[in-house]
Amino acid sequence: MTWTDRIETLLLRTVARMSDRVKVLLAVSLIVLGLVLGFLSLLPEIRVASTVSLGGTLGSFSELGEPVVPATGLSEIRLVNSSCAIVATALNAAQLQELNRTGNRPTPQLDCDHRIATFDDPLVWVILENRASSNETYDVEARFLRVVSPMGYLALIGFPLVLFGAMYLIVRSLRRGIEQLGQEFKTKNKKM
Question: Are residues 74 and 91 in the same domain?
């Protein structure tokens, strides 16, 4: 007898000795644990994929367009150590096409009151504008983020737990239903 056979025999004996209530409680516990693990596997984590810094000096009442590489889905842009005269407009691909086609630019997202902005569309261009009558330095930092599920493997553990717990409860319910039908059939046959 191998060690796996011994473990299997031990498990079968243990399950056979358990009362019906304990088996149901164990099956329900497996389902709940599996669902909790499945939920935990869905929790996202946001990580920084890359960072780009743009810095320099803008002349009075001038603007500068800078490409943003790499463009990822979730990004955060912030004005760092820039005067209130510097404003920034971040553009995704559709907005850049609209700007090139019509010349219409969206309102700046970054200014003196709003130093940080988060975008969920991939950014491709940043327009910096100096609204002062003197030269101003600017420093813009872009962080490109990615959403990951570091605990996704927990779903691989949780799925079998839910499956085994549900299977046990379904088989148990079917057995009880069949036994009750058999009992009713026997009592009807005795009355006749």
Answer: yes
